């Protein structure tokens, strides 16, 4: 386990989750010293001399933009966040010795962007964020399924073409039979005419 990442995660631990399930309320749980970590780590244009409430407000505004950017630019992090954090059956234990370095690195990125919080060693996500992520996952699923709905239409078109081709072939076959019948009828007619001529000659 990466000790530096683990130490940073411990430094950003808050003792309890806020009653209000929002990023701003969660950020307000940090001490001013902890908030300074975010300012320095991300090189934010926020003065450390500001009042805590002002820092929290500015940090929250930055996070709202940064959260989408960091997830969109990192598909592995996005998958980890969706599967192992937001939609997980149990909260991740950040201090678990069996946690891989990659997982710990992902956890730290999530915490440093306000996508998750280290609440007494457990990874916690504000309800407003988890709801947004779930909604985006559902939209992605719908977009993936949409092309499949077009398949029956193509099949119908194919069937229509098949029927048209079959009908054309049938018509051609019927025409061929009709011509053959006409030839036979013509031949029979000529034979009858020939017989009549022979009979006429005999009578004379």
UniProtKB/TrEMBL annotation:
Basic residues bias: start-end ranges: 192-204
Region (Disordered): 1-26, 134-204
Biased composition annotated in UniProt, kind: Low complexity: 154-173
Compositionally biased tracts (Basic and acidic residues): 1-19, 174-191
Protein name: Uncharacterized protein
């Amino acid at each position: 386990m990466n000790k530096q990442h683990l130490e940073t995660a411990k430094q950003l631990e808050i003792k309890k989750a806020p009653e209000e399930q929002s990023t701003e309320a969660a950020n307000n749980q940090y001490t001013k010293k902890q908030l300074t970590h975010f300012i320095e780590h991300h090189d934010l244009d926020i003065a450390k001399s500001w009042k805590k409430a002002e820092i929290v407000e500015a940090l929250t505004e930055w996070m709202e933009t940064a959260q989408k950017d960091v997830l969109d630019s990192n598909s592995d992090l996005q998958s980890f966040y969706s599967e192992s954090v937001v939609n997980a059956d149990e909260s991740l234990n950040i201090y678990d010795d069996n946690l891989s370095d990659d997982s710990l690195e992902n956890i730290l990125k999530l915490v440093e962007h306000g996508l998750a919080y280290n609440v007494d060693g457990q990874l916690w996500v504000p309800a407003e964020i988890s709801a947004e992520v779930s909604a985006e996952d559902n939209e992605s699923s719908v977009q993936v399924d949409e092309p499949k709905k077009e398949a029956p239409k193509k099949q119908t078109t194919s069937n229509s073409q098949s029927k048209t081709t079959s009908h054309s072939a049938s018509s051609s076959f019927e025409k061929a039979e009709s011509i053959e019948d006409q030839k036979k009828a013509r031949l029979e007619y000529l034979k009858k005419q020939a017989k009549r001529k022979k009979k006429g000659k005999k009578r004379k």
